[in-house]
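Input record (Table S2, row 281):
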Amino acid sequence: MFAASKVPPGIALPETDAPHVRPLIELAHAGVTFPTRKGDTVVAVEDFNLTIQKEEIISLVGPSGCGKSTVLRMLAGLLKPTSGDVWIGGGTQRRGFSEVAIVFQRATLLPWLNIIKNVLYPVRVLRRPTAEDRGRAQELLELVGLADMAERMPHELSGGMQQRAAIARSLILDPKILLMDEPFGALDALTREDLQLDLLDIHARTKKTILLVTHSINEAVLLSDRVAVMSAGPGRLQDLIDIEIDKPRNHESAALPAFVDYSRRIREDIFGPRANRRATS
Ligand SMILES: Nc1ncnc2c1ncn2[C@@H]1O[C@H](COP(=O)(O)OP(=O)(O)O)[C@@H](O)[C@H]1O
Ligand SMILES: [Mg+2]
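Output record (magnesium ion complex):
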């Protein structure tokens, strides 16, 4: 539980049955301004307010360049907000919070290590892996459907399998928060659909808090408890939508009227009211 004093003033907390439960992640008026080479500045993210509760999956969608990765990098502690605050795990992001893992678009496996050694790599950076660590790595490979691939080298695996291995690696230190920046963006459509369902399964079994950056409106609706839509230039939170579609979900969920309505709303948020009009010839 996080001390009430650590919640910044002026931030309305979501209503909850348990009065002392605080959000795991909170962005309060967070902004990031980058200096440019010409000597002026670019505002990447402005006055961004969002709270994320434990165990939820929230997606960040918005046009290219609207600041999605910048928000994710703030939460990862890779980037400090230039204005406002980022609160994570009960403290400010400036103090750091180690229980965060990131998955990027590319799996970035080390090519000279086999799959299980890649999964164990974050442990190896800290200490010598124990038999228990190796057992856990094997369990994670089972979780992501790679039980038989432990001894294979990365180049022997397809792109989807490599990304599965990267997800297993991200879980090896048992992080509370999983940040994913377009994790399926480099995969073909069918592999992507497969991994989307795997992610739902992984979430159901591990209960990680997941922030997913995606270009895909369908992916956001399918996977998320809530979708945060960002507007471009400078990046602000434009809409926040509760996705009330029963779980477990699968690709047939996309045919539900509610699913179609959520997708339409997000498309209109991004492209304006003309977005959903049919082209006429
Ligand atoms: N390190 C940086 N230096 C200068 N500008 C940056 C830097 N990182 C991102 N930007 C700019 O900030 C804006 C948001 O970028 P980004 O968060 O990567 O967007 P998205 O992930 O939504 O595509 C863009 O205009 C981008 O050019
Ligand atoms: Mg990005």
